[in-house]
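Hi L.,

You mentioned the student needs an example of a multi-chain input paired with its predicted structure. This one should do, with 1200 residues in total across all chains.
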Amino acid sequence: MARPTRKRKTGDGRARLLRGNLVAAGIVAGVLVIILIINKRVREIAKDESDELLPIQWRQTSPGSRPFLEPQEPGEGSSPVAFAADQSTNTALRQEMALANPTASGWESEALSKSASVALKTLAKAMLAPHEDALWTNEVAALIAEEFTCDLTLPVESTPLFDDGVFSVRRSIAPSDSTKSRPGVPSDLGGFRRLAAQFVGAKPTESAARLTFKIEGIAIRDQSFETRVSVELVRRDAAGGSRQQNAVWNCEWDKPTAERATLRVRSIIQTSQEEVYRTAPGPIFQDCTLSAMAQQESFRAQFLRGNAYWAQRLSILEGTSFLGHHGLTIGDVNGDRLDDLYVCDGGGLPNRLYLQNKDGTLLDVSLQSGVDWLEYTPAALLVDLDNDGDQDLVLATVAMILFMKNDGDGKFALAGAHSGVAQARSMCAGDYDGDGDLDLFVCSYTNPNKATGFGTRGVTSTIPSPYHDANNGSPNALLENHGKFRFAEVTKKVGLDENNSRFSFAASWEDYDLDGDLDLYVANDFGRNCLYRNEDGMFRDLASELGVEDTASGMSVSWGDCNGDGRPDLYVGNMYSAAGQRITYQRRFEDKREEAQLRALRRMARGNTLFLGSEKGGPFSDVSEAAHVTMGRWAWSSLFTDLNNDGRLDLVVGNGFLTNRKADDL
Amino acid sequence: MSQSPANASDQSALSRYVASWNALNTMLGRGGSFSGRERNCVFLNCGVPAGSRQPHFANISAVSGFDFPDDARAIALVDWDHDGDMDLWVCNRTAPRLRFLNNNLTESSQSVAVLLEGASCNRDAIGARVTLETSTGVLTRTLHAGDGYLSQSSKWLHFGLGAEASLASLEVHWPGGKKERFSGLSPGGRFLLKQGRGNATPWRRPGPAVKLTPEPLHASESSAVAQVLLPRRIPTPSLQYRAGGKSEEIEAGQESLLVVLFASWCPNCQTELENLAAHAEQLRTANLKVLALAVDELEEGGLGSRAKSSKLLSKLRWPFSSGTATPQLLAKMEHLTDALFELRTPFSVPSSFLLDGQRNLIAIYRGPIPTDTLLHDAKLPATSSTDIRDRSVPFPGKWYTLHPERTALLELLADHFQPRYPDEAVHFLELALPQLTGDGAAAVQRRLGQLHFYLGGQALAANRSAQAETHIRAALKFGPASARAHHDLGIALFNQGNLRAAETAFLKSLELAPANPSASKNLESVRRALQSAR
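Structure written out for the whole complex:
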């Protein structure tokens, strides 16, 4: 194939030039047309480890914008009226809806758990309103069994676990026998009300308070059942400090009977308690986005609207990203040593480059810098690919990996493209072969299963099978830098084709064994992860031997030394599912499954994982539960960072899967 | 995913598993949530107890201020304002899709930040490991380029020093193995570390200290009103409505057509129709016809009626054509939009569809359309495909892909319509066929053969023999060697009294599949009928 040609055209005559390019570039013209089919075709060519990049012809949208009809602020009468036109039927959907309805699905545990959580909501409302007599004497009284016992006070360690003068953390004394719950004190409604008031704090009305309960485990008996409930109480005190209590309650319930339609709580025993108190006024993090983006119209118009909004206005023909799989990157693009911000977006919405001004505010230079791609872009990196002292831009886009060269002033020119991987996700750069330039690893999730597959509908186009060990994803790629923006795929050559057909979300390089070269950890959805040890430029997957398979829904990788021993530790983002925890421990679920598979499925719902590195690159130890870092919910980016400058790496976890207009259905 | 099969060879469990995935995907496309409204988490490292290696973490999510209920995805760490603590840029799926969270650390602790520059290794020094000895211990940080999920953080390495620590020494392990000690660092500063220099160069950001102020950030208000321009011309299914007691079809014509769905009881609809009527001349000049279709009767327990909608139109002296929407028209338009959008938007009134002369869909409007918008969009049918695509996006930008191929789009529509409207799938595939060659054409021909055979069978069962004959003959065009098709053709012909031809069809079927008892029996019946006819 010919050397990359880099015709750069703007303005008029684009259609003609594009056609010219189609004729000249032959196969590349195909790439331009239908992404998915051709991607395959081109990749076959690229598999020979050629470092010839594909010449890509791009064009700017024609001048003249559309009159944008949508009002910024909707006025009176501008909203159409909904009417029922939905006569469609979908049997599978109705079946799943039936399954999501716990009573109909036959999961007694889920039905009881749902009733208990409704009762707990009432309780939370009442506990935050200790003076509302009507609420207590009517609603709470109806929930309390006659022989009710209660204990919400646990002895706390005399020495705080942590205290730096601003933050203090205290924990309850661990009971000597944690399997046995303490007996509660017999209590009537008035007694419970006093204990509850004491738990919440003297004057909860003084400040905004939040009390949430989540049921994480359930054990069923004939007439009753027991739930393990995680409790989070948040409030500010009059002095401006804030307090957070993380507790676990063991609640015992009487099942509903023929005479009594609702369940009743028989006992509430607190089994653990963690109190966090911050004396400084205000939270650690303050949202200063508006101040930083003050004059940037593109921020308001594009980013103050959610992906659901755009998914109703941009069709899948442009590769919209309903699930929100697009990220951001930080780097200094114009050489002033101030970090700038590049934000990726779904198809039909341009990626944005915001420069940092001297006063910390931002300036949208997407168009001027040449990086306003409308193609769906999951990920981008700002790295110096040609070692000339400026930050170049790598983009994982809908069909290809694009390489853009920085001219030193923050203007980017397209150097060429690699056919890359199917459904790219995270990327990470590192010099794996020690030749002085940066190589790239690109994660791939799965192959779209339709030849015509515009975009991907729903969670995944290929159904992972089996769920806990899916090996029907698509291969990740290592792109080796050959200089002058030439990249060759060497995945197979270096042994990274081992265990390489999973649903990979994220990866990160680290010299975990401190032998001087970069090793690679890859987090996979629906199953085990990989730790590829670099052995003189060849890789071997040692995840199993080193105990870091972490069979779960891997979504994020972060390396850092969190215990100060100089060895890299590893924090992996996963999916924490209270429902998964409840279901996988039920007898009905157990009966059908092999012990090993059961363990695997339970593990999948456990949440994030912290692995401590050991001497000489030996096995890691999983300390997630003891270190209290599993509950990251449906976690995405989960990162080590030192938030309070005490030299110890803390953890931040961004989470939440899909919030749509309907409430949680699962 | 409680449906994941316990045993891989359990086919029925497997199909339940597949069905639940499909149902999940459908549910999400209809606005369902899945682990939504979850609050972000923060865990504070409380240190390692003496004699242990394992640190304790405390859940400080709520007091940290980071616990937004967003659907968060990417997080980049950076000391944006250079006040010595780590701030966050966060990218969300839900609005606001971007947040800058400024670290408001009030502790009296200090930090030091370093930016590396490699000489014998990669210039960014990605992979470098920096160890910093302080009076209280050793801190180790590695420079990464890409971690978390879809994220890359700042290349400035950040070391928190606590309240009292003083710096002892700093060592860089450059990629490639060289080690280098740097002097000249002090707490509270930012330093450039160039490989080979051995001396840290202090660096201060130019200009005054950054002052960014906190302010609550909310999503933009959005109404259900939308102007949706499609990125290319979308072929439509056949669309029927009723007018003057007859069934009418939306047919191709010289002019573009705006189909407006309205209800008599809806005040927005009345305003919309008034506006269109008032601009009738301008719209005609723009080569645009309008068809107003009432949906009053389609609602269950609705407020409107045919009489009311006719009354509204005559009151407005409606200058264009009008009629009543059929349930099929709505269902097919819903199918079409379902095929094109990931998130379903339920129909509401007024809704309008702009069709070009060939009745390709150009735009969808939810809510009333300002006249200037409509007049602008009325020019779209006459513009190039490139322009249509460029106009469909809300902001300008760059493309390297071409607009999607028409054949691929037609196959997508055929897939989507096939389960419920196989005749429409045939329509879309027949449009695609002339533009296909090779394997692609063969696959579509096979599908067309199967679809026509199926439709022929349906027509036979409904006693529509002539229609059945047409379909089966079409099926035979694509698959002349199908014994079953010849057999069904025989029945269709027999039912129409065409006995000679029926005999030939059954003979052909038996020739292709001699052991078919049904064909033999039918052949006998045809021959008996022929005998008695003589």
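You could point out the following to them. Chain B touches chain A through 223 residues (CB under 8 Å). The mean pLDDT of chain B is 92.

Best wishes,
N.
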